[in-house]
């Protein structure tokens, strides 16, 4: 499998990361500690720290990456996890990664505090990298999360939004963290500015592709494969790429969405209409476009043996559909 090939060069670092995540967020309060442990024990794809570790190897021209790179990978996963805690509250998700969400297991109050605590911990560890450029690059991500969430809330059930608006929102909610983390890794490797910016573009377009694939899976995947309830985005009025493409073909789909799924069978019918349209294929094509831009952006590492892994991780993102 592609994933095994990718993980082979970073398996030890990934193992250490999984161990460190549970200890790195050791909270003094037992409830916060329990909430943090609950989050990281649930696992996950760890796609973001994997990308950070691979970029670190590719920009260092060696397999043995610095402790700062490993810490950045951990910070990236903590920030991502904190954002999921808050997202789950807003979206009223009951499960995540096959287990109860924090607000469902504890309370909404504890979940808000746990998310805030993780953001605070990530900021503290970020500051302790003692690299102002990396701090500036990564710290903007938390602002972007809020921007993305606000944008998403303002356009719920609004089928007049454009694909460009969808891409902008997807950048703020998903791609911003991957892009900033890739650039942060390149900064720590002390490569030239152009290569730092190319690393950013790699992460940005990889992140956009990842989000588009996630949005396709929300309509065709199972709760088990998604790590959260299927069709949750659509139920919440979050109109994603496959839905937006399908809307251009179906007046009936527009009618159902404008009524905000008032009938019990409307969600199933809406999904059926999307499947009958070219929406899923057009969304997949869009994801592939972003993957190609990402691969083009990272060509400066092609003399490094890790370059192939950076291409494979791109393919792995697309293979999640199969």
TrEMBL record:
Record Pfam families: polyprenyl_synt
GO molecular function: metal ion binding; prenyltransferase activity
Stored InterPro entries: Isoprenoid_synthase_dom_sf, Polyprenyl_synt, Polyprenyl_synt_CS
GO biological processes: isoprenoid biosynthetic process; quinone biosynthetic process
Origin superkingdom: Eukaryota
Residues annotated as transmembrane: none
UniProt keyword list: Isoprene biosynthesis, Magnesium, Metal-binding, Plastid, Transferase
Cofactor(s) this protein requires: Mg(2+)
CDD domains attached to this UniProt entry: Trans_IPPS_HT
NCBIfam families for the chain: prenyl_cyano
Family per record: Belongs to the FPP/GGPP synthase family.
Descriptive protein name: Prenyl transferase
Organism: Kumanoa americana
């Amino acid at each position: 499998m592609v994933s095994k090939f990718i993980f082979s060069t970073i398996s030890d670092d990934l193992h250490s990361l999984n161990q460190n995540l549970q200890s790195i967020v050791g909270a003094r309060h037992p409830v916060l500690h329990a909430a943090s442990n609950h989050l990281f024990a649930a696992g996950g794809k760890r796609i973001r720290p994997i990308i950070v570790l691979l970029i670190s190897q590719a920009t260092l021209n060696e397999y043995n990456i610095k402790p700062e790179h490993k810490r950045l990978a951990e910070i990236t996963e903590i920030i991502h996890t904190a954002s999921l805690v808050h997202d789950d509250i807003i979206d009223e998700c009951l499960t995540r990664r096959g287990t109860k969400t924090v607000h469902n297991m504890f309370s909404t109050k504890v979940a808000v505090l746990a998310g805030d605590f993780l953001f605070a911990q990530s900021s503290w560890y970020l500051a302790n990298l003692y690299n102002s450029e990396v701090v500036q690059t990564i710290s903007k991500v938390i602002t972007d999360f809020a921007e993305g969430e606000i944008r998403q809330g303002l356009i719920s059930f609004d089928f007049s939004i454009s694909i460009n608006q969808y891409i902008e929102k997807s950048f703020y909610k998903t791609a911003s963290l991957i892009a900033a983390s890739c650039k942060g890794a390149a900064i720590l490797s002390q490569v030239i500015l152009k290569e730092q910016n190319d690393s950013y573009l790699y992460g940005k377009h990889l992140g956009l592709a990842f989000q588009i694939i996630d949005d396709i899976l929300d309509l065709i995947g199972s709760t088990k494969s998604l790590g959260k309830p299927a069709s949750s985005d659509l139920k919440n009025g979050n109109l994603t790429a496959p839905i937006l493409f399908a809307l251009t073909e179906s007046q009936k789909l527009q009618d159902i969405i404008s009524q905000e799924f008032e009938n019990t069978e409307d969600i199933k019918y809406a999904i059926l209409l999307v499947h009958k349209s070219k929406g899923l294929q057009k969304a997949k094509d869009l994801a592939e476009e972003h993957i190609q831009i990402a691969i083009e952006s990272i060509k400066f590492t092609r003399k490094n043996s890790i370059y192939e892994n950076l291409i494979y991780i791109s393919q792995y993102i697309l293979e999640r559909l199969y």
